[in-house]
Task: structure prediction
Amino acid sequence: MLVLSRKKGESIMISDTIEVIILETDGDMVKLGIKAPKEVGIHRKEVYLVIQESNKEASSDRKALVKRLTDWQEK
Result:
């Protein structure tokens, strides 16, 4: 893990296309601004994990459906 110190108004770059800007600090809270291409998905981690779990469930449901259809066609 890379640990950086930044002040309000300062930023960091991730690759050539993503900039993370410190907008505000208030005690232990930090407001970040993120500039990135539209095709880059940006989510809070807790939301990202829910999306990943939902995708796994949907994939599992599709696999089960394909198996049932395949089994049915073989009969």
Strands lie at 11-14, 18-26, 29-35. The longest helix spans residues 45-74. The chain has a mean pLDDT of 89.
